[in-house]
Amino acid sequence: EYMSRSDLERFEVDTVVDDMTCPETARNITDCSSDLMDHDCSAGESVWLECESNAEWQFVHAGLYRIQDGSIQESGSAGVVLINLAMSDGSQEAFGTLCDDRFNDHAAQLACQHLGHRGFRRWGNVGSNDAYISRSVLEEHELDTVVDQMTCTEGDMNITDCSADLMDHDCSAGESVWLECEEGSSDAEWQVIGAHLYSVDDAGEPYESENAGVVIVYLHMSDGSQEAYGSLCDDRFNNHAANLACQYLGHEGAIRWGNVASNDEYMSRSDLERFEVDTVVDDMTCPETARNITDCSSDLMDHDCSAGESVWLECEEGSSDGEWQVVSAGLYRTVGDMEIEPSGSAGVVLIELAMTDDESRRAFGTLCDDRFNNHTAQLACQSLGYAGVTQWGNVGSMGEYISRSVLEELGLSTVVDEMTCPADATDMNSCDADLMDHDCSAGESVWLQCENDDDDDDEIDDDDEENYIDLEFGGVKLALNLGNVRERIHF
Q1: DSSP labels for 79-148?
Q2: Of 370, 381, 375, 371, which is closest to residue 444 (Cα–Cα)?
Q3: Beta strands 432-435 and 468-473, pairing class
Q4: Nearest alpha-carbon partner for 429 in 364, 487, 491
Q5: How far is 423 from 437, CA to CA, in rounded Å?
């Protein structure tokens, strides 16, 4: 029906893939094995497929628009809402308006926040106010409704939590929504505060499970204004991310993982929908250098996932007897092209950690400024062999020693966070900190300027080459002065 054997022979289309074998555990065609350019097949053995499309309309982008200089242009904080949709398989796109059916003040607030503003001042439809784009202009440009029946419950914290009909409406151009949002954006942002694994019991009730279940993540706004919980989407999730997630939850690592659509043993898609558990974390991306789930990037409260894409994990039971401990620390600066070296009495604090039961598991990165204060800075300088601190800050406010972009380029993430030293602490041993568990950006990395008793010791003697060794740690090149190692490197 699609192509005959003679067609293939006429076009000289020969077999290039043979003996494709996909184990039951395979979740992607790339997990299968095959022979490339090595076959014993005739043209008649060429495979044809009829695929079932599961493509659906998805939200791509939204903005506020008005008529300017005779054309429709994006207009900042006030205008008619225009939305771009696309089919998940990329086959179609659509651009049009949002209908006011079921739209309310709460939906307007979430919409303005989604667009990067603090909230809404007022809203309405084009039929009652055509100051931004008139009904006739919308009709002239064939800007039809693409989103209808948007319903945001009181518990919805993000516009993506709301339900809506895409490309299915009964609205006129006059029902198209306009918004006036409060200009400026809030400094607050969504943060992860915890996660657990959940299953459903025989009675259909959810319970927190020990080492296997659907991942439920808890978020809050950094200013404490909102909270949310929901599932983790499988977009970009992989084996490395699963391993880090299990370790974050207190286990050795991951045995296997998947999504609810492929395995509803722990919680089904209908369970998640019944409990109104929506996705709160999407596009989790963990680079190979990531040693903690907090080193991974993700989209919080912004997703294009269905309940069936929610991740479940099976983790190795129990936890490691080992724990992270500080091995060494020092002050560093950038030299040359993307290289760093110890920098005497002033620089960015870089710390090396190791697991107590497996010293091959190591991490090297920065100290976050969360809860860091003058007293802690004083103790830190003293632990590095100096009299005390003269000044300290973070890379975001001053990147003289190592810039934020260099830290990100070298993959130097936070390894120590929430360092807290009581007022009566006389050394760093009395301080508490979170190791390999952080919510910090590169800009929050601490630098120190320590008070040096010996002025000559502040600069490294470039002529004393025999005192140097060159090391490479995780792709980061270090030039260590052996004379400084015993004196300053121990934290």
Answers
A1: EEEEEEEEETTSS-EEEEEEB-TT--HHHHHHHHHHTTSS-EEEEEETTT--SSS-HHHHHHTT--EEEE
A2: 370
A3: unpaired
A4: 491
A5: 24
Say how far apart CA 443 and CA 398 lie, in whole Å: 9
Q: Could you tell me if 132 and 202 are in contact, meaning their C-beta atoms sit under 8 angstroms apart? A: no
- Helix then strand then coil, in percent of the chain rounded to 5, is 20, 40, 40
Q: Which tokens hold the place of 294?
A: 């907090």
Q: What pLDDT does 454 receive?
A: 54
Please answer whether residues 273 and 200 qualify as being in contact, where contact means their C-beta atoms are separated by less than 8 angstroms. no
Contact 319, 301 (CB under 8 A): no
Residues 6+ apart with CB under 8 A from 320: 252, 355, 357, 358
- Could you write out the DSSP letters of every residue in 335-352? ETTTEEEE-TTEEEEEEE
Q: What is the pTM of this model?
A: 0.41
The rounded radius of gyration (Å) of the Cα atoms in the chain is: 28
Extended beta strands in 308-371, E state: 311-315, 324-335, 339-342, 346-355, 358-367
- pLDDT the model gives residue 244: 92
Give the residue ranges of the chain where pLDDT is below 70.
Answer: 184-188, 223-225, 318-322, 337, 358-361, 453-491
pLDDT at 453: 65
DSSP 454: S
DSSP string computed for 461-478 = -TT-GGGEEEEEETTEEE
Which residues does residue 299 pair with via DSSP β-bridges, in sequence order? Answer: 282
Distance CA 167, CA 148 (A): 8
Q: Hey, CA dihedral for 203, 208, 211, 217, is it positive or negative?
A: positive
Indicate the length of the chain as a whole number: 491
CA distance 144 to 146: 6
Name the 3-class secondary structure at 157. coil
The pLDDT value given to residue 34: 95
Q: Are 139 and 131 in contact (CB under 8 A)?
A: no
Distance separating alpha carbons of residues 51 and 249, to the nearest angstrom? 38
| 239 Cβ contact list (under 8 Å, min separation 6) | 254, 257
The CB density around residue 438, as the number of other CB atoms within 10 Å, is 23
